[in-house]
User: What shape does this take?
Amino acid sequence: MILLKRAEEIDLMRQAGRRLAEVLELLAGMVRPGVTTTEIDRAANREIRRRDSFPGFLGFEGFPKHLCVSVGEQVVHGIPDGRRIQEGDLVSLDCGLIYRGWWADAGLTVGCGRLDADGERLVRVTREALQRGIEAARPGNRLGDVGHAVQAHVESEGFSVVRGYTGHGIGRDMHEDPEVPNLGAPGKGIEIRPGLCIAIEPIVNEGQPGTRVEADGWTVVTSDGRRSCYFEHTIAIGDDGPEVLTRVGAAA
Ligand code: MG
Ligand code: MG
Assistant: This one.
């Protein structure tokens, strides 16, 4: 069942989203050569709690930490484990919080220090793919338009969309209906209506789209060992179009 949110509910999600945007900006700034994923995890916990929020990833389906950090060929759901980040690494941060009962979920990929040209392009194209998906998430369109916008941009640049992981509705729970795939056909799928709140999260591989899950049961890695990239925003659909709730500098 798809729950459309009322204006006062979206306002609480806006407050949650602003807090998460602040936290993610701070965490992204920590990505420097020598920092460990555990240090980023501790900062996530501290910064979320000091904003009167709860780090919702902790204990979610048994997840042991406060955010996911995925490095290099790790795609998503990497567990902070003390790994030391090195110059040139691609580092994806995926974080969520609960504020007054409402979720925000967002993430980004940053390069540590200087990235090679292909890495820079992978990051740019994935960020652009999220933006294209957001622009397609307007009343009257359908979720297939969102997926198509993401997929078309990624594939036009020679990269591949990871299968089997999607965006999602969000609100009182992190994962609500509907699923928001990163691929699709224009004009297909559920109609996008005001009050719909979703997380859009393109996951893009440098090489082939295949993935597998590591022995820890969480960490997803590329099958071909090449790198992966990811961006995510929580958005609310208004009468006039999408509003990004997790953008840094979003209105208070
Ligand atoms: Mg998500
Ligand atoms: Mg997320």
